[in-house]
Amino acid sequence: MKNLLFLFMLTPAFMWAQDGNHPEFDVKTPEVEYKLRFLASDELKGRDTGSEENNIAASFIAAHLEAYGFKPAEGQSSFYQTINFLKTKAPSRGMLKIGANTFNQGEELMIISGNLENTTAEVVFARHGWVDEASGRDDYDDLDVKGKIVVVLPGTEEDQSDQAAFGAAAGKRKIAQSKGALALIELYRLQFPWQFFKRYFGGESLSQPDGNNNGEPTMLYGWMQEGQDQEDLAKVREGKSLGGEIMSEGYVRQEAPSHNVVGVLEGSDPELKDEYILLSAHFDHVGVQSRGPGQDSIFNGARDNAMGTVAILTAAESLSKERPKRSVIILACTGEEKGLLGSRYYSENPLVPLEKTIFNLNTDGAGYNTTSSIAVIGWGRTGTDYAIEKSAEAFGLGIIKDPAPEQGLFDRSDNVSFASKGVPALNFGPAFENFDAEIQKYYHQPADEADAVDMEYLLKYAQSFTYLARIIANNIEKPTWKEGDKYEEAGKELYKK
Ligand SMILES: [Zn+2]
Fold it and tell me: How far is the CA of 461 from the centre of ligand 1 (A)?
């Protein structure tokens, strides 16, 4: 009997109790499981940013924050921070005829914007289509392009690199439009492979209007590849104008509002409550992509990143039951898969001043290939290693420190939006050593489904994340960037007073 008691004292269960039994230690599997199953359900269609289903996920998160007693940030009337994205999609059909040569959308032709009914027009060549008042260069000279199809070379006379070509494109469109052109078509002479170019510009894309592109040209714009045996195109390039025809349809350009979800819980300490710990996870994923008949087309994003979303909701509930000294901000980010757009938007438009935000604990990952650990990206950089060790050990988890360094993971998830502003940050993720076949089986694949997630691991993952947040939120000493860290200077700048 005595011996058995001694053995019991060595088990992790006893060690947790020593630190007081915080609410996260009592969470049960079904409480994390239903959240994951809902977020990763087929009905949410992969939570693509700008989709209705992404908004449903946001509403699910907001409902939980409300129920847990979180409040919208000061001055806000709801948990939503709305971002007015712009969704664009290249025309699904298009055709260009130059003399006897015909070019089809998706083959040698990639019209990027504009819808136009079949129109007969003259085709003219305007060199690079560039006008530079400073140097007096005018590629149009006295060329009249009103109502015509204008073909140009990429870049400018001075620079035809890919970079120059992409950089000059917007200016060329404005110039051609101001001259009354019907369409502007650039000849594809870039290093970047045509196949990739078509895939990139042929799909749907989401951008954040910067306020300057409201006047985007409405004129039809695209690129075409020059092939063999296109004598009439060659004649145009030599300066001869020929009869032509052009059409496109299916171009989409529309507003697509999406929301970050932001809730605040006041800290329990009269002084420390003026400092905030920011817990973040992206809840968007990559939506639906057709993979051929009979194939699963829904990218459910259970691991990436319904798991992280469940972790921040678990933290929200447990921290609200036993409030830590510092205040807590829960930030569920949209737009991560589109290029960290949601977290960047928040970091540019914070709802709590960033200089009061002492730490960002983000949770996201590519998936896991072991259930005995967690992976930490940013180990040794913010003075929080002691807390990570304690929180992992409490749930019997090991720590994989900065896996796959060649992938530059720290700068590829939402934590970098805050780190680059100076806020000490790290990413807490599911465990993996490298991008092996087990990771690739699920990473951005339709197979990343709830049924393939180990719910016991999800529970420990969410508990450990929560306990880590609690320790940092309670510790008198604030995290700081390690001396010499690439974000140390930004940190000094942010917190100076
Ligand atoms: Zn992710």
Answer: 16
* Cα of 233 from ligand 1 centre, angstroms: 46
Q: Tell me: the pLDDT tens digits for 155-208?
A: 999 999 999 999 999 999 999 999 999 999 999 999 999 999 999 898 888 887
- Taking the centre of ligand 1 as the mean of its atom positions, its distance from the CA of residue 198, in whole angstroms, is 25
Q: Hey, is 292 helix, strand or coil?
A: coil
DSSP state of 371: S
DSSP 8-state code for residue 305:
I
Long-range contacts of 320-324 (CB under 8 A, 24+ apart): 320/68, 320/69, 320/70, 320/265, 321/23, 322/22, 322/23, 323/265, 323/266, 323/267, 323/268, 324/267, 324/268, 324/277, 324/469, 324/470, 324/473, 324/474
Distance between Cα 480 and ligand 1 center (Å): 25
| 236, 121 contact by CB (below 8 A) | no
Burial, 273: exposed, middle or buried (Cβ in 10 Å; 0-12, 13-18, 19+)?
Answer: middle
Give, as residue ranges, everything with CB less than 5 Å from ion ligand 1: 304-305, 364
Q: For the chain, give every domain's residue range.
A: 14-86+256-495, 91-250
How far is the centre of ligand 1, averaged over its atoms, from the C-alpha of 288 (Å)? Answer: 16
Cα(264) to centroid(ligand 1), Å: 23
What confidence tens digit (pLDDT) does each residue in 109-155 have?
999 999 999 999 999 999 999 999 888 899 998 899 999 999 999 99
Domain covering 14-86+256-495, topology = Aminopeptidase (3.40.630)
Residues 6+ positions from 334 with CB-CB distance below 8 Å: 49, 54, 58, 83, 258, 259, 260, 282, 283, 284, 341, 342
Fold of 91-250: Glucose Oxidase; domain 1 (3.50.30)
